[in-house]
User: What shape does this take?
Amino acid sequence: MFLSETVTMSDKETSSKPTNKSALPVLRVRNLNVFAGDHHILNDINLDIPRNKVTVLLGPSGCGKTTLLKCMNKLTDLYRELKVSGNILIENDDILNTTTNIPSIRQKMGLLSQRPYPLPVSIYKNVAYGLKLKGVRDKKLIEFSVEKHLRETGLWEEVKNRLNSPATSLSIGQQQRLCLARGLAVKPTIILADEPTSALDPISSKIIENLFKELKKHYTIILVTHVLRQAMRLADHVIFMCDGKIIEQGQPDELFKNPQTEELRAYLVDGN
Amino acid sequence: MRRIKILEEKFFVILSAFMTYSLIAVLAFIILVIFVKGFNALSLDMILKTPKGGYYYGGEGGVLNAIMGSLYIAIGATLIAIFIGMPAALYINVQLVRYRRTQNTIRYFLDALWGIPSIVYGAFGFTLMLFFGMNASLLAGIITVALLISPIMVRTFDEVLSTIPRGLHEASLALGSTRTETAFRVMFKQGFSGFITAVLLSFGRGIGDAASVLFTAGYTDNVPVNLDEPAATLPLAIFFQLGSPIPEVRERAFASAVILTVIILALSLGARYISKRYSKTNLK
Assistant: This one.
């Protein structure tokens, strides 16, 4: 399925035992290449995602941000035309070349897509879905968990009296928060957010942004956006991409104040 | 220029409205004719009795044999078609999601199967029946009609499943569902109304088809009690009665048509009710 390009990593990298877990990157991408036919979508991507921070993948539309995100939870499997090679390591488990079953890899990451896709069930069942997949049958535990995650996303007060209503009866902003709660219920390490506010009104967008600021205490967030201002508000770490390549990465202050490349400089000028 | 545009707009609005309403009018007219012509012959006996001696010459009895035969065949065939069609449609849309060319090839073949005239299915069923040494029977009728309606079941359900956004599919997988869980817990639920439509269309085609059961189910004046007994069907009952020189018998043909129409209508309404009700409880 994937073109397995053997990538030799230094012994130090593969055998290092985490002494201080929080200091180590939660996810590492090494020599990632993605082709769609002759089109080189991602070109030799190398990056580290720091733990409990918001990492923003920034770049113009069509630069490969979403594809990179889809590689991280192996949704690229759904697209036969994509040939993926390289390594993506989550806690030293190379998910691109692993024998671990794919659903359990995906459960390490909650996905928030451009527009919300609530499951065709009630609000309650949406959040309970992931728990049931994990084999949780204890009703009390499920109830507790549903409330906890709905509170975590600030939705509880708004929906506590209509938990059995269809999830589609919520406003689009609420649906996006429900999808976030649904993802959190699976207890992921990382939240992958693919332009999660692009379909939302400014107020709902702000709620989501504020949630991310709270959630990063417990989760690592990888946020794809092409909105420069959003990146500036949220980012702890920025990866700027263009034409399938990483152009610059680093601290937002340094990157935005002192861009080293012409591409980023042009993007910052246009974005402002 | 503006005048031409206004005229053009008016012309096409009137044309499309006329076509739509005239189609409904024609359908209403068909039902009206059937009811008017068959009304006199409609009686409880028609529904509750099997043909007695001399029924086809205007004697006593009814078409209970054909009603029950048709229901047995249509229900049996629909159940088989569900067992074939539901997994097949889910397979095309979930397991084969990466293989667009294979999906399209399968769809092409299913469409071709859908287009094959039912008499060809009848002939095939007949050959199959002879091969296995079976007689014209309820079972042979059920199997033949199941073959006839399976492509309809798969393609109708598939058509709805294929409109489900890829994002929902991905959302389900991203939560850690396997492909089977995605198929049955998410895709099937989301496409449930399409599933009901598929069942309805298949049942309607199954109960209304004469050619496929002509050689395979045979005809009898009795209500079949075993799968290896021949079974009468309403379309054939209509056919035989309509060919009679006796006016009363021809009237009964229309009465049989009324019964067939009412069965399909009742089923359609019932299915819609179930679909709505299920979706409600499902989404609550």
